[in-house]
Design goal:
Length: 148
């Protein structure tokens, strides 16, 4: 009946074909119209499924940025939120891709090299405290540097 109404068939023709009365047609026409309005309010004018995303291209892009590019703000590595903002996607998407490929940019597998010109002097001071501590003193390190 709704399809016939949508095609422009007259009410009289619908009543004759479906053997129903005018009140039946009005009731279902009203219900259909209110449901259409509810769906339009929820999804916009025409509800459509979300577009399919090319997963392989997306993963390749995330992996390429993670492994080959450095953050523009001078950070040593990407965080999932920082990379997601750079690529315009959800940070959970970046985390899922990293997890799938066992990538952890925040964990370094190599030693760090400092660019501090006074590193040797600072390191000598710290190492000197360990090797030649003052008499009756206990040496505690609360902020040990990874590279030292």
């Amino acid at each position: 009946m709704i399809l016939l109404l949508d095609e422009g068939v007259s009410r009289a023709a619908i009543m004759a074909e479906l053997r129903c009365d005018s009140r039946f047609i009005t009731m279902w026409q009203t219900r259909f119209a209110s449901e259409r309005e509810r769906l339009a309010a929820l999804y916009g004018r025409h509800p459509r499924p979300a577009p399919r995303v090319d997963r392989t291209g997306l993963e390749a892009r995330v992996l390429d940025y993670t492994l080959r590019c450095n953050p523009a703000d001078g950070s040593t590595h990407w965080s999932s939120r920082k990379l997601a903002a750079q690529l315009g996607m959800a940070f959970m998407t970046v985390q899922r891709i990293w997890r799938k490929h066992d990538i952890r940019p925040h964990r370094l597998d190599t030693h760090m090299v400092s660019n501090d010109p006074d590193l040797e002097i600072k390191a000598a001071d710290v190492i000197g405290l360990y090797l030649n501590r003052p008499l009756r003193a206990v040496v505690f390190c609360v902020d040990e540097k990874t590279a030292i």
